[in-house]
Design a protein that fits this description.
By secondary structure, this protein is α+β, with helices and mostly antiparallel strands. The protein is built from 12 helices and 7 strands. Helix 2 packs across helix 3, helix 3 runs parallel beside helix 9 and helix 8 packs antiparallel against helix 11. Among the domains are: about 55 residues, Helicase, Ruva Protein, domain 3 (Orthogonal Bundle), CATH 1.10.8; about 120 residues, Elongation factor Ts, dimerisation domain (Tetrahydropterin Synthase, Chain A, 2-Layer Sandwich).
Amino acid sequence: MTTISASMVKELRDKTGAGMIDNKAAPTETNGDMEKAIDWLRKKGLSKAAKKAGRVAAEGLVGVTAAGKAAALVEVNSETDFVARNEQFQDMVRKIAALAAHAKGDVATLLATPYPNSKETVETFVKELVATIGENMSVRRTAQLEVGEGVIAEYVHNKVADGLGKIGVLVALESKGDKAALSTFGRQLAMHIAAASPAALTANELDPVLIERERAVYTEQAKASGKPADIVAKMVDGRLRKEFYQQVVLLQQTFVGAGGDGKATVEQMLKSVEKSAGAPVKIGKFVRFALGEGIEKKEDDFAAEVAAAAGQQQ
C-alpha cells in the first residue's frame, strides 16, 4: 500500500484547492501518482483548476538577446534569488544570452562556446563562478528564432536589468509589411504570450498526450449526465474546442495585450494588423521561458532546522 505523506497532501491542496480529506483520498486511489491524483480530483469535480502549473522553485534569470532578424533566450539557474541579484551573475547571464543565437537552441553547443574575454568555455566559466560564489548554477536551456522577412519581437517580464528577468518571450512575425507596425504588434503579442502562456500556435501542434488527458477528464464528467455515448462524445468534442483550445492555443486565445477589446482573438488581431502593416502577417514561431518552470526545489522545514540547531547546542 502506498504511503501518503503530508507533503503530497499539501502539494495537491496547493495545486487544486480541494479539501483536505479529498486530497488524502486522491493519491490513495492512484497509488501515489500525483498527476493522476489531480485528474482524479478534477473528474470528481473537486478541483477547480483546469490547468495549473506546479510551484516554481528554481531561482536565477532568463536572458533575452536580439540581433537583426535573429533572437535568443537562455535560462540560467541559481539556488537563491540573492545570487540572481548579484551583478556578477547578471553579467554572466547577459553574456551567455548574447552567445545563444549562435547555438541555435542547442545547450551543448552553447556550453562549448568560448566565453567572452576568456580562455574558458561557457561551461567551464560557469563552474568557476560556482566555486567563486559558492552556490550551484547551471545553464538549463536555450532557444533561438530567426525570420527571413519580418521581425522578431521580444519581451521580458519582471525585469531586473536590460534583457534579464523572470519570464522571457520571443515571437517571429513573418511579413513584408511595415516594420514599425509589425514591431508594435509583435511586442503586444509577446506580452500576451507572457501572460496567457499558450501551449501551441495551433490546435494541430498541441501535444496529443495533453489533448487525451483533457479528453479523459471531460469524458468522465460528461458521463455523469447519463446521456448516450454518442452524445457524450459530442459534448466532449465541443468542450475541447470551446474551452480547452481557447485556453491553450495561441491563435484561439482572447487577446489580452494592448490594443485589444477583450473579445477579439489573437487570430482576429492578426488580421487587423495586416491593414496597418499593408501586407499579410503570419506568426512563424514563439518561445516562452518562465524561470524554473517544471523544476521542484526541496522545501526546507524551518521549524525542524531550529529544533535541530537547539538540540546541537544542548
